[in-house]
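Much of the work behind modern protein science is quiet bookkeeping, done one molecule at a time. The fold becomes a row of whole numbers, each drawn from a learned catalogue of backbone shapes. The protein below has been through that process, and both of its lines are reproduced in full.
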Amino acid sequence: MGCVDRYGLPLTGGADAVAAYNRGVGNLLRLEEGSLHAVAASVTLDPTFALGHSALALLGHEMCAPVDVEARLRAARLHAQRGTERERSHAHAVDRHVAGDRRALVDHLARYPTDALLLCAAVPTIAFAGVTEVPQDAWAVVERCAPAYGDDWWFTGLLAFVRQEQGRFDEAMQLARVSLDVEPGAGHSAHARAHAHYETADHAAGLAWMDSWITGDGRSVDSLSHFSWHAALHELSMGDLDAVRRRYEGQLRPHPSMGCRSLVDSGSLLWRWALTPGSTDVPGVEEVLATVDESLLRCPASPFVAMHAAVVLCAADDAEGLSTLARSCDGRDDPVHREVVAPLARALRRMLAGDPSFAADALAVLLPRLWRVGGSDAQREVVEETRICALLRAGRFPEALQAVDRRLDRRPCRRDEWFRTYAGAGADLAGQALTVTSPPATETCLEASGDDAGPA
């Protein structure tokens, strides 16, 4: 076929370089290990291969890969001049995306819908934060590209993820299964299925399927910790805290190669576990902090990572770190950093400073706009749960009950029932039999008296 990408678009580069690039993009579309190595090999084989440089810059910016992003962008701009119009547009779209201007990427996809790498980057999924602030805009990008893909297994999985975000869970499950029948290791399709199980409270079946996929068809997935995180969410929801501990010890304990996933997966799980009524001996986040680059905590590139940095700094009781993060976000060009993450960091700092009532009110203001940071509802729930904790610390039990009941209206959850029992006990006893403390590493941040506030 000559030098073309996986969907037939021409590429200006040596044959070996193009083959390595296609291999890397294929790995990324499957979420398999090796995407960074293969794309890096493409520019080693042909240093003038523009799209290889652009892809490296994109992976560095979005996935915290160890890449000199600015150097790769400069190389892409230089070498794209000898490429096709599509390649020049692709390089320009990545360049502007990294600079915070996401419109160029959306415009590019309107002209070249089968540029799968950039379509993947446009939609908030497990690999990328997306390029639109309004979820409906991302959905529209996918829908417009649909005719160009037909029954392609990767696009079917991407569409499955969109459908679950739209609350069309039966369709999402069907599309995910169709994709996985063709490509059993398809990470995006498995991710869509994981969300469909979780959002419909299908915890037992979802956990059983996820465990079998993690150790079977999905064992070579690059972001396997995120699927382990999904399994742990099922276990938390069912109230099986012993299983959560085993999951953390066996699959989610941080290590340096996890990069920002230490924050997003391990760190957020530890905090949500610590918030759970009745939890004990929850590991601290010191291992998370020891395995992530300092820049991820002080000046994260994306609002999504910055949100998780705020959560982990809160779990670490690091008020000064939260102040630094807030100042960093205040100074960013991206309005989501300034308008969402900076206030989040300040609210969490006030909670650590002993003003949970202020924190609860500030988080209530933020929750309706939290979707702007990207990611999924399941990930952003950590802020909602933190607000419930703040309300309980402040003794505002009726409001905590209302917040928990709204969650239970969405789906049944044993853990939320524990929150409700805890809040109800506080309301009944006017706080006299309830002590809410800061979250030391070995205790839950909520300590309840009585046998029915948590697991036996």
Summary: The two ends are 63 Å apart (CA to CA).
